[in-house]
Amino acid sequence: MNTAQHTKDLLKKVRLIELKTRGLSEHIFSGEYHSAFKDRGMTFSEVREYSPGDEVRTIDWNVTARFGHPFVKVFEEERELTAMLIADMSASEDFGTTSLLKRELITEACATIAFSAIKNNDKVGLILFTDKVERFIPPKKGRSHILRIVRELIEFRPQARGTDIAGALRYLNNVIKKRSIAFLVSDLLDDGYEDALKIANRRHDLVVLRTTDPREGELPNVGLVHFADPETGELRWMNTGSRAVRNAYRAAGLKHQQRTRELLRRSGVDHATISTNEGYVRPLMRLFKQREGAR
User: Fold this and answer.
1) Which of 64, 99, 103, 265 measures 20 to 30 Å from 278, CA to CA?
2) Cβ count within 10 A of residue 236
3) How far is the CA of 93 from the CAs of 106, 189, 286, in angstroms?
4) What are the residues facing 236 on neighbouring strands?
5) Phi-psi bin for 67: left (phi > 0), alpha (psi -120 to 50), beta?
6) CA-to-CA distance for 124 and 146, rounded, in angstroms?
7) How many other CB atoms are there within 10 angstroms of residue 68's CB atom?
């Protein structure tokens, strides 16, 4: 394909993604995004004496100790927030057995969040990672900036195939000093990232969107199949005609799912599961509603 045709095809894909996700952000997600996140961007303003009804968590214990009676911190809402998209580009995201690949699901979900954020006058940045951080786009405002992010998500071809979630979160903490809303969008097929999740969630308002596909938990009965691990390249034959094999595969999928849910619960991170067959709209809506109700 020549360069002109490639550019034309890319712009067409970007336009289609924009039409779909911008419409969703304007008509469905924009208000929900504001309610779920906007009042969490609070900056310290002053201290005042405690009044009955003030929340205990707002007490400034240092000032209280100094004066001998309780004082509370007063916060004010920031005019703008920063939303960081941390998108998994590892080889396992190039999997999908329905209408979408997991990577395409990531692109649409990130684009919808990005358009919702700029609708609320927030900055948006992007981190693309595999087993290393491969691309960083600093947070900015504006439609042209969001379209650049969408282009990167569509066109980006990673150098590596593996996954290092902890490394991506450490990078976030190093480059974004101010508290942000950070969306980690990944299938979480990795180990050893729990501590990094906890640290990132203390420094930022971290939200995890876990990508899945139905075939990751259920094998069809199609006989002898040659499987390849997309990240390690390991090859193996599997007899999907065997009920025992299919049951073992299902059990392993459920175990990973339960272990991941428990890890996210321990980390205190808000999360939702988005899938290639069911999409991201309803899970995101439920997540935003939960956050709004928990305020």
Assistant:
1) 265
2) 9
3) 9, 10, 24
4) 227
5) alpha
6) 8
7) 6
**Residue 237 vs residue 85, higher pLDDT:** 85
Yes or no: say if 125 and 140 are a contact pair by the CB < 8 Å rule.
yes
- pLDDT for 278 equals 92
The C-alpha atoms of residue 78 and residue 162 are separated, in whole angstroms, by 37
The model's pTM: 0.83
What stretch(es) of the chain map to CATH 3.40.50.410? 3-37+79-293
Task: Report which DSSP code applies to 223.
Answer: S
Residue 67: which residues within 8 A CB-CB, separation 6 or more? none
Q: Does residue 234 contact residue 162 with C-beta atoms inside 8 Å?
A: no
* CATH homologous superfamily for the domain 3-37+79-293: von Willebrand factor, type A domain (3.40.50.410)
Burial label for 86, CB within 10 Å (0-12, 13-18, 19+), is buried
Calculate mean pLDDT across residues 101-114.
Answer: 95
Q: How far apart are CA 239 and CA 225, in angstroms?
A: 6
Q: Which amino acid is at 115?
A: F
Phi, psi dihedral angles at 284 (to 5 degrees): -65, -40
205-223: per-residue pLDDT in tens?
999 999 999 999 898 888 8
